[in-house]
Structure prediction request, 745 residues.
Amino acid sequence: MIPVHYYLILSAVMFITGVVGVLTRRNAIIIFMCIELMLNSVNLTFVAFSSYLGNEAGQMFVFFVMAVAAAEAAVGLAIVLALFRNKQTVNINEVNILKW
Amino acid sequence: MYQYVGLIVLFPLIGLLINGLLGRKIKNETIVGAIGSGAVGLSFLLTAAIFIDMLGMPADGRSQVVTLFTWIAAGDFTVSAAYQIDQLSVLMTLVVTGVGFLIHIYSIGYMHGDRGFWRFFTYLNLFIFAMLNLVLADNYLLMFLGWEGVGLCSYLLIGFWYDKKFPGVGITWTGDAGNKAFWVNRIGDFAFMIGMFLIFREFGTLTFNEVMGQADGRTVGEGTIFWITLLLFIGATGKSAQIPLFIWLPDAMAGPTPVSALIHAATMVTAGVYMIARNAALYALAPDTMMIVAIVGAVTAIMAASIGLVQNDIKKVLAYSTVSQLGYMFLALGVGAFTAGIFHVMTHAFFKACLFLGSGAVIHAMHEEQDIRYMGGLKRVMPITYWTFLISSFAIAGFPPLAGFFSKDEILWFAWADGSPLLWLLGAGAALMTAFYMFRMVTLTFEGEPRWARDKHPHEAPSSMTIPLIVLAALAVVGGFVGVPAVLGGGNAIHQWLHPVFAQAERIMALPEHHDHATEYLLMAISVAIALTGFWFGRRMFLADPEADKRIAAKTGGLYRLLANKYYVDEVYDATVVRPILKTSDSFLYRVFDVRLIDGFVNGLASTTAWVSSTLRFMQSGVVQNYAALIVLGLVVILGLLIFS
Prediction:
């Protein structure tokens, strides 16, 4: 049996990777993927705790998160597509019109 | 009857509401005039009924308080709209409503054809309403309400013909004269208010009866009482035009003549006298204030009378005469002769109202000419005005047995007996001048040859104007008989009538009884001689040569100019008070305090906000990652706090 903190450490590493990716990368699609990474690190935490505590509620939440992530993927990719059609780029540094 | 006292005040209020709200629509001068005069007439009748009721009562049961409703209640401090009916307030109410009624009637004729006819009657009724509150109030606050109300009406009515020019020092329009009256009165009112606060701090109440009730337990000459009475007196100098605040009254002549008669001669300006008489017991406790009152009164009397000697505007002469006569009243109050002061208030109301109304009739006849140098010979064309004017002039000059003789003589006698011969001398000097300037004016206006332009056709005033003149002249003749002194075999009815009101003050002052009849006769004889001298000189000099002024001016040069320019008091105030205030207001309060400090603060607040925002807005980079980084940073901080604290 692998101890629960192994999962938590892995999950934290994944989450921080996602956060750093979101904050530092400029490509909208990579940022998008980093968000997915963060969501999945959370899923991992849920599942780990669910197994550790013997409580199925965690697994149930994972399905919710997956459903939301799927919907988000659809909307997000659509936005990226629309963005590309308008600006011929997916570099978000060039999409900064919402400012002073 | 006492419980109906509220109606006395209510009638003018109703008249004011009807004329004020509907007057513009009514248009009919007869109806507007009838409503305005009728309201005051009803008040007069009701007052007369209460007065008769009072006559049938024992002397110590005559003073009662009728409470209408609680006006202000805060903790254990309450002020009621309550009216104190006693011998003093009833007398004043009779004068206010009686003379007021006559002047209302007169105004129907005088204001005929004026586009502000209904407005005029609205203001007049408002004035009567406020004045009745002033004299009937049973506490300082309600009195102050009336006090301010009459001040407001004075302002409104001085500037009634707001599009008319009126020359004066620092004055161009009649409205400026109204402003002047209002501002000068503000100073007095401020002192009155502080006096009222002091009374509340000292006595814990604002009701006259309670304050006077506590006065007995006080020692004579107490510091606080001195300040209270002095502050109230400063209030009175504003309202009653005494030194140093008398300067507004001569300019108040900018108003229509009935206003001068009602407000600036007969009633409002005597409010200060009434107020001090109402507080007689307090003043009795402050001999120092009494002395100040007496001196101020005597000096005002002679100073104003001397200015009146050389004025050429018929209303200005009367205005200075009013200031001078008010000085007499304060002289009487100051020497403790409260009854004599109130007596003079009453007789003065009769003859001075008559004189002012007479001057109004003259001004009307002369087509708004007010300069007596361009009048003359009017007695042939306006006999009724002439005779009533003449009778009132005799009355004010103090000819026996007219009203003015008894009241003025009583004041002079008490000034001698309870004050000092010096005070008497000032009063007697003023009496000489009074007789002189009155008959100078009568002679220049009515006697001799006409000096007016040929195209003027003066005529006698309509009966609505002459009837009040006749009634007032009759009162000026008989009004004095209520106060015939004991040495002339009279009962001095007014003295006995008012005695219960002033008994407390007289007990505190403990003035000696006077049995020196020889002196009293002598002073009386001197008074009569003075009046005759003034009359003789005033008449002879100006009958022989209507331009005698010029000869006198040439002979006395500087003195004449000093008097003609009213001792330069206006100029002195202008230079020492008005201009410095204007200058400070402009160069400091406006340019520095307001523009730099206040505006600087407000604008500074705005520009600081603008600067801070313009700096902070660069955080709004439009790069979503920056926002996300901040969110993460915040999250880390919060988590850190949660974990490590």
User: Anything to note?
Assistant: Chain A is about 80% helix and 0% strand. Helices of chain A lie at 4-24, 28-53, 57-87. The CA atoms of residues 18 and 35 of chain A lie 6 Å apart. Chain A touches chain B at residues 19, 22-24, 31, 92-93, 96-100 (CB under 8 Å).
